[in-house]
Amino acid sequence: NGIKVYFIGHNAPTPLAMYAVKILKTKYGVAITASHNPADYNGIKVFTEGGKDATEEVTGNLEKLSEDIKLGDVQVKEFDKGVKDEIIKFIDPLNEYIDTILSMIDVQSIKKRGLKILLDPMFGVSKSSLQTILLTARCEVEVINDRHDTLFGGRLPSPSAATLTRLKDIVVEN
C-alpha cells in the first residue's frame, strides 16, 4: 500500500516506539500492547508526529477510515518479502533512546548519591532500558518481577497498592 515500515524487531517499551516516531519524523507509529490491561486485551496504540499519543479525534478518524476500507482493496505482502523489497526496515533505537534519557538527567549527582534501587518492571519489557539507565548512574539495582510474562504474573500491570505490595515490603525490609 506504499507505506514504508520501520520495525523494532524485539520487545520494546511503549516510550521507545514513541521515541522512534519522533526521531524518524514519521507521520504515525503503532505499538501492539495491552498496556495496563490483561494480555488478552492486546490492541494498538497509535502515535502521531513527534511521538505523541494520538488524540481521540485522530483515532476516531482512523476508525472511520478502517470502516470504509474494503478488505479486497488492501494489498497484502508477506513480511519476509516486505523486508526483501525494503518496504520494511528493521531498526533498533534502544541505545540512542537510553543516551537521550541520560543526557536529560544529572547523572553525576545521581552517582554521588550511591543510591540503592529496587526496580519492579512488573513482568513487562521496561527492565532493560530502566536497569541500563540506573546502572549507568552507578546505582545498586535489585530487580523483582523481571521475567517477561505476557500474563504479567497473573495480575494487572498497573501500579497500585495491590500490585506494589511486594515492592513496598522489600523496600521497608532492606
Would you spell out the secondary-structure blueprint of this structure?
Layout: E1 5-8, H1 14-24, E2 28-33, E3 43-48, E4 52-53, H2 56-68, H3 79-84, E5 88-91, H4 94-103, H5 107-113, E6 116-119, H6 127-136, E7 140-143, H7 165-173
Parallel strand pairs: 1-5, 6-7
Antiparallel strand pairs: 2-3, 3-4
Helix pairs in contact: 4-6
Overview of this protein structure:
By secondary structure, the protein is of the alpha/beta class. Helix content is 38%, strand content 17%. It contains seven helices and seven strands; from the N terminus they run E-H-E-E-E-H-H-E-H-H-E-H-E-H. The chain has a three-stranded antiparallel beta sheet with strand order 2-3-4, with helices on one face. It has a two-stranded parallel ribbon with strand order 1-5. Strands 6-7 form a two-stranded parallel sheet. A hairpin with a 3-residue loop joins strand 3 and strand 4. Helix 4 packs across helix 6. The longest helix is centred in the middle third of the chain and has 13 residues. It is globular, with a radius of gyration of 19 Å. The model has no long low-confidence stretch (mean pLDDT 91).
